[in-house]
Design goal:
mainly alpha, Dbl Homology Domain, Chain A, 11 helices, about 65% helix, flat
Length: about 300
């Protein structure tokens, strides 16, 4: 960064260090085990690491590389399986539901949400990751690619999670119709509901996968910082999407139950969607003042 700050790793923590706290070392020393004394090692720029008392996770550089290779292999397989499964679910189930002409176009849009956009985004991300891994598996910046993709993925998942409770409610309100329709295409109702939840269930796998990738990295790996940040970002996205779905479920329940005193369910629905829902404290000011006065006596 401008002003003399470098990204680096010290005692397994990656962050930014002032330039006067680091030294450039030779290329041959970059991936040696951490030295007993010295300034932080800066990622990908040939700089030395400080002292550490941590027990090494790997007995040799070979075992570290083998571990990273296996994690990368498992990750790519998981991503490919996810993209394939969600694509098949869209093509073999959702599109057939639409082609049956048994539900309206409006209901179909509620059912699928923006799933097709999510599939396209995930397929592009998988392509970028595969290309990086094939080009240079040792130094592939998987964390950087995921960090770059995170803002768009967060936006798409926000829209999907906002819609998901509506899709499930639509299915359950018309359960008989959907059971008949799905029986014609040999798909159980539970598979339809499970398939619709697959995008945010898959999202929850990213933080742990990124943590495992980091375990297989040298302290000087150029992707270490981005991998740590990506793990935190995707954990935040998963928590955000989970909270958003719960809030939308509560809003939907409130609209259908009509549990607001003096406001019937049908009248409540005429007001449109609930924009925000939260917990508030309601206090009786007069009673509170009288209580305070009694305490002062």
């Amino acid at each position: 960064l401008e002003g003399g700050w470098w990204e680096g790793t010290l005692h397994s923590y990656t962050g930014w260090f002032p330039a006067n706290y680091v030294n450039i070392i030779s290329e041959s020393e970059r991936f040696l085990p951490s030295r007993n004394n010295g300034p932080p090692m800066l990622n990908g720029d040939g700089l030395s690491s400080g002292p550490t008392k941590e027990t090494p996770l790997f007995s040799s550089d070979t075992s570290r590389q083998a571990y990273r290779k296996q994690v990368m292999k498992d990750f790519l397989e998981a991503e490919l399986n996810y993209v394939d499964s969600v694509t098949k679910f869209n093509d073999n189930t959702l599109i057939k539901v639409k082609d049956s002409k048994r539900i309206s176009e409006k209901d179909f849009q509620v059912l699928v949400g923006n799933l097709q956009l999510l599939i396209t985004h995930q397929r592009e991300l998988l392509s970028d990751i595969k290309e990086a891994a094939e080009k240079d598996a040792t130094n592939a910046r998987i964390g950087g690619l995921l960090l770059k993709a995170a803002p768009n993925l967060r936006h798409l998942l926000r829209l999907y999670c906002e819609n998901h409770p509506k899709a499930v409610d639509l299915i359950l309100r018309n359960k008989v119709l959907y059971e008949e329709l799905l029986n014609e295409i040999d798909c159980p109702l539970k598979d339809l509901i499970s398939g619709l939840s697959r995008p945010f269930r898959h999202l929850e796998t990213y933080p742990s996968m990124l943590n495992e990738l980091e375990r297989g990295m040298h302290e000087a790996h150029p992707d270490r910082g981005d991998t740590q940040r990506a793990a935190a970002v995707f954990r935040d996205i998963a928590n955000y999407c989970g909270a958003l779905r719960k809030q939308k479920e509560m809003q939907l329940e409130l609209l259908t139950s009509g549990s607001i005193d003096g406001l019937p369910s049908e009248e409540l629905k005429k007001l449109g969607e609930i924009l925000y829902m939260s917990i508030v404290s309601v206090d009786d000011i007069k009673a509170s003042i009288e209580e305070d006065l009694s305490c002062d006596r």
